[in-house]
Amino acid sequence: MRVVFAGTPEPAVPSLRALAASSHDVVGVVTRRDAPFGRKRVLTPSPVAVAAEELGLTVIKADRLDDEATAEITALDADLGVIVAYGGLVREPLLSTPRHGWINLHFSLLPKWRGAAPVQHALIAGDRVTGAAVFQLVPALDAGDVFAELRYDVPRGATAGDVLADLAVSGAELVSGVVDAIADGTAVATAQRGEPTLAPKLMQADGALDVSQPADRVVDRFRGTTPEPGAHLSVGGARVKVHAALRGPDTELEVGRLALLGRDVLVGTGEGTVLLRTVQPAGKGSMPAADWWRGLRADQPRVDLPGASS
After folding, report:
1. What pairing do the DSSP bridges indicate for beta strands 2-7 and 80-84?
2. Taking Cα atoms as reference points, which of 285, 278, 8 lies closest to residue 168?
3. Buried b (16+ CB within 10 A) or exposed e, 35-46
4. In terms of DSSP H, where are the helices of 82-130?
5. In the chain, what is the straight-line distance between the N-terminal and C-terminal CA atoms, in Å?
6. What predicted TM-score, i.e. pTM, was given to this entire model?
7. Residues 159, 148: contact at Cβ < 8 Å?
């Protein structure tokens, strides 16, 4: 079967490689254009673009599936479109261009967490079980019938980056199986059941850790926003990125107060404590939290609370 693949970030790469290694013919790969990366803002191809070029596949770079991109994809004469985290919408007439339409690998158990950031929202919400689903793409957001799904028990302490890396691998097997079933005519899709929840793209502000909340909620938000868009605290009006954190001991520590504990730093929350292991102050590199704490010029350093003046 002739397959066109659309994807952009690293979690889409295992699915591309699995399809390229299958009996199907990947006739083209659609990915977003090169984007600025790093402090020097060097234009860098997407992980999917890099993998496609290594595999010797035809690459179409487009940030939007407009008329020009639609014409290029249509010319590939694909039987099926497969999309994994491309970062753009597939609309008509492109939606119906392949003979079997498009299928989408989505990193949640639909209809829960429809949208651009399902894993992130699942962790922020404290979900202990999530998964992946392959569904038929339709005009409505992530609303198509589901061909296959898998359940995933979220490891204790896992970040969104960790979970996505795991689901990318198991999801590649899932999508490959669906493509095989569509090719041999045995694929069956069922309607989604249950109340949908939404998972819109996260912004930088979503990474702010509100330590007036219970420690478990603070850690859930840290996990859900790591590595992107990045968890952070405000201390004395200065933003401090948090790269490693976990639930701390249930000691009495005033909300927002910082205290040294070995090579780590405890933060008092609305209930319990959070333990900071690795942080990055503004304008500096990543460092052990204890090293950062020792450099603070305050007798009783504390985290700024929402609505409080610094």
Report:
1. parallel
2. 8
3. eeeeeeeeeebb
4. 118-124
5. 61
6. 0.94
7. no
